[in-house]
Design a protein that fits this description.
The chain is mainly alpha-helical. It has two domains: about 90 residues, no CATH class; about 100 residues, no CATH class. It contains seven helices and seven strands; from the N terminus they run E-H-E-E-H-H-E-E-E-H-E-H-H-H. It has a three-stranded antiparallel β-sheet. A two-stranded antiparallel ribbon has the order 1-2. Strand 4 and strand 5 form a beta hairpin. The structure holds zinc ion. The site of zinc ion has 7 residues, from helix 1, strand 6 and helix 4.
């Protein structure tokens, strides 16, 4: 059973209840930030939209998006206000469901990584799926970008170092590594997508 969480519903705060409320993740709801997290049937048959689309219609709803670790995340809301979001046709997912999917995805990644490390140590070509530390489900794009930037910086450092050591300036090996990393990121993204699909 999932542990209780301390929920600060942004709507409740506006109504004057700023204190965090301890609730089961079964009673907290997270609006779908991205369009692709709204199930196809819900969009087509019932007209549900994502939080980003909702913000495009009314910028005030941007209060439901927070930046954590440099990426956008949707704030969880209480049951009462989750119901209001759904009535307004903004797709929501129960926090407990998201947590369960994240745990499964993390477990899968751990198994894959475990399977890969032997191959890497054996000198075979393999990519260890990058572990996502994010608590929230969305975080693929910004995270992938941050990682790409970091890798780029590392590559450049490596290139400079190599150029210093070796006047010929051969192409750094990290370049090849960078290209496989793109695959690993998209694999992670697919997992996150799969986790978000209801
Ligand atoms: Zn509330």
């Amino acid at each position: 059973m999932a542990e209780n969480i301390k929920l600060v519903c942004p709507f409740c705060v506006k109504e004057g209840r700023a204190e965090p409320v301890e609730v089961s993740p079964d009673f907290a709801w997270v609006p779908a930030l991205l369009e692709r997290w709204v199930p196809e049937w819900a969009r087509k048959e019932q007209g549900f939209i994502s939080l980003r689309e909702a913000v495009a219609k009314d910028a005030r709803l941007g209060a439901l998006i927070v930046k954590r670790n440099g990426r956008d995340e949707a704030e969880a809301v209480c049951s009462k206000h989750g119901k209001i979001l759904r009535t307004a046709k903004i797709w929501t997912t129960k926090l407990s469901v998201i947590l369960e999917r994240q745990a499964k995805a993390a477990d899968r990644r751990a198994k894959e990584a475990f399977g890969s490390i032997g191959s890497i140590l054996a000198g075979q070509q393999a990519t260890v799926a990058a572990e996502s530390q994010g608590v929230e489900p969305e975080g693929d794009d910004a995270e992938a970008q941050a990682r790409a930037e970091q890798e780029d910086a590392q590559r450049r450092t490596l290139a400079v170092r190599k150029a210093g050591k070796n006047a010929e300036g051969r192409k750094p090996k990290a370049q090849a590594k960078g290209s496989t990393k793109g695959r690993s990121n998209s694999a992670v993204r697919r997992e996150i997508d799969a986790a978000m699909e209801a």
